[in-house]
Amino acid sequence: MKRKVICVIMGGGRGTRLHPLTEERCKPAVPLAGKYRLVDIPISNCLNSGYNKIHILTQFNTASLHNHIQGAYQFDPFGGGFCEILSAEQTMGGDTWYQGTADAVRQNLHHFRAEDDDLFLILSGDQLYRMDFSAIVKHHDENDADITISAKPVHQNEVSGLGVMRVEDDFSIKEFVEKPKDPAIVQSLLLDPKLHKYVEHGNASEMCLASMGIYVFTARVMREALANDMTDFGKEIIPGLLGQRKLISYIYDGYWEDIGTVGAFFDANLALTDHVPPFNFFDAEHPVYTRARYLPASKLNKCSLDHVITAGGAIISNSHLTRVVVGVRAMIGDNCNLANTVLMGADFFEDEEARQRNRNLQRPDVGIGKNCHIHNAIVDKNARIGDDVHLTPEGKPDMWRQGDVMVRDGVVIVMKNGVIPSGTRI
Fold it and tell me: Do 246 and 306 have their domain in common?
């Protein structure tokens, strides 16, 4: 039988670092770049690499993710491909939720039906990058590895919050250090000079290799590695196999951003508005797939736009936008000023009957009203912002909250389905 590459995307835990964006959805379902979801990135990388057997493991707030996957990824019956969500379930063998990344895979091994020579490709659901996974699989095979770990060259001054590995010139991994802070230890983890040729950006002599959380396991080794009660790949399983199995590093020096926090999510989205963004959604040979919504083109009336990206179905009237991501069906009224703002848009259009109902209930329409000033903000889906609203995080401490507005990582966030009355000043 032909060897299978089984792609497993980890949906993450409760997503506390991304809260409140994860209050009603899991991390992979968080909107990205106006029209996508975070989960579209690893799925698209899998499909562009020729791998179409994709499992997504999640357990928190999965309804939004289910709707997106069902609407976006339908495979023909001849290719044998699928994209399915495996949520935690009660079985005769156990009734606990996933306790970590390794435990999530362990609880689903019977679903994967893997033969000994098949490969598991373990991926994260909250990273922005473009990678040809067939290259890491080829590297795994060429080095006769049991486990291959993708590693990103990172400057030695930036490794204190990462898992760092010491790699020999044959790519073999000899040591793991979690979040090293001792300068002497960091120096011992610097990239081997014979591997400097794999670093395309920065001074290779000042680089360490940090784990990207992307793993290739031979299926037999995966089963054996999970024959215990360890719960996490990065913290327990892989360090425990060091010296017991052949662990190989695959060096990747392209753009890669972990979007696990509100601040990282905000910065990654705004970076897409740059003249030459660090991540290119316009690569025709490696498209990023998502749900086809069949929306009308966006309509812009007497607007001033500076570094703005817009998704379909938006209507913007007589406003000034600077470094703004405009999501699907976003509505922006007259004389608004938005800067450094991510608008996630809406799930629906409101007709005249709905707007009349809003007036009767004395609530704003979905979108942003007139004469609003919004700076350094994330406006989540279906938010209703009235007229003459001013929003900025300036002067507010981290985790400050008032009604449907929260400040986190220096960003003011209007929550999903939030209502901000006219005249609000924050």
Answer: no
> SS in 3 state form for 391-412?
ECCCCCCCCCEECCEEEECCEE
C-alpha to C-alpha distance for 344 and 11, rounded to whole angstroms? 21
Decide the pairing of beta strands 299-301 and 247-251: unpaired
Q: Do 159 and 186 meet the contact criterion of CB atoms below 8 Å apart?
A: yes
Range of the domain at 32: 5-266
Q: Are 334 and 318 in contact (CB under 8 A)?
A: yes
Q: Amino acid identity, residue 98?
A: Y
- Are 176 and 165 spatial neighbours (Cβ–Cβ below 8 Å)? yes
Among residues 105, 121, 113, the alpha carbon closest in space to that of 217 is found at: 121
Residue 15 shares a structural domain with residue 104: yes
Burial class for 362, CB neighbours closer than 10 Å (0-12, 13-18, 19+)? exposed
- Judge contact between 32 and 290, C-beta under 8 A: no
List C-alpha distances in Å: 413 to 306, 343, 368.
Answer: 22, 10, 14
* CA 372 from centroid of its chain's CA atoms: 30
Could you tell me if residue 112 is inside a domain?
yes
Instruction: Look at residue 221 and tell me whether its pLDDT is greater than 80.
Output: yes
Residue at which a domain ends, from 247, 266, 285? 266
SS3 313: coil
Q: Locate tokens 């897409």: which residue?
A: 272
Same domain, 304 and 200: no
Is 288 contained in some domain? Answer: no
Tens digits of residue pLDDT in 104-154: 999 999 899 999 999 999 999 989 999 999 999 999 999 999 999 999 999
First vs last C-alpha separation in the chain: 62
Tokens of 47: 């499909």
Q: Using CA atoms, how far apart are residues 95 and 110, in angstroms rounded to an integer?
A: 15
pLDDT of res. 355 = 94
User: Has residue 278 been placed in a domain?
Assistant: no
Total number of domains in the chain: 2
DSSP label at residue 14 = S
